[in-house]
Amino acid sequence: GQALYLSTARPTRTGYTFKYWIASIGGNYNPGANYTHDQDGGTVTMTAYWKDETAPNCSSFSAIPNHWSDGNGTVTYTVRDQGSGLASIVLERYSYVTRTWSTVKTTTYSGTTASTSGSYTETSEGVFYYKLTIKDKAGNVTTKTSAAIYLDHSNPVLSGMNTTVTSWANVAPVISVNATDYLYGTTYGGSGLNNVVIKDDLGNIVASGISSARYTLVAKYEGIHTWYITVTDNVGHTSSAQVSTKYDITKPGVDGTEIT
Questions:
Q1: Percentage of the chain with pLDDT > 90?
Q2: Cβ–Cβ under 8 Å, residues 234 and 191
Q3: How far is residue 244's CA from residue 246's CA, in Å, rounded to a whole number?
Q4: In which element (H, E) is residue 28 found?
Q5: What is the residue-wise DSSP string for 35-88?
Q6: What is the rounded distance in angstroms from the CA atom of residue 186 to the CA atom of residue 62?
Q7: Is 128 buried (19+), middle (13-18) or exposed (0-12) by CB count in 10 A?
Q8: What is the pLDDT of residue 102?
Q9: Above 80 in pLDDT, residue 41?
Q10: Which of 191, 99, 192 lies closest to 150 in space, CA to CA?
């Protein structure tokens, strides 16, 4: 019948929260609480009751490259749960091009408490960021988001060559071209244009620009000439085209004018 008092100290356990003591004589007790020992010389055992209220830890989560690239993207992560252990990891991807989410990787676990790493290789063209959802066996969840990656796998596109006069002309033909750089099948801008260049058939640059170039033939290009146009984007992709001109500024001559 004597009232006894528990220590106010709380035990600790990695990955868990101490909730209360469970007494072998029945009842739950908090640190510092009192209880009555009614076993007359026997032993009362206090057993700690733990609950996993700690979300899994994500020590690293990255997605690269965070600038335009013509290669693939790499997503890596390292996670751990030292309480009830890991239950699942879900990696989702958001596309800025299509404005949609998709699940790209799901891994399930049976409660491992060891540090776990994973990776995902992004081979699709586009602009993406990723969300990592980590769940432990107790239902606690940690969510992380990454920086955006930029992947440009498409060549730029040239236009305007069909406006050049390709038949014989005595007025200087004009070569005027434009270029665009969109991700394939979309109107979403890619890495951007670096330059557009027009060269003559000897390889000399006669005109250049960023997204367009224009050149009006001069007298020395009288005759038949082929012009080579090249556009390059900011990750090194190129597209080429060519067009021919026939330029005649020489008046015809008259022979056999002698009088007989």
A1: 88
A2: yes
A3: 7
A4: strand 28-29
A5: EEE-STT----EEEEEE--PPPEEEEEEEE-SSEESS-EEEEEEEE-SSS-EEE
A6: 27
A7: buried
A8: 98
A9: no
A10: 191
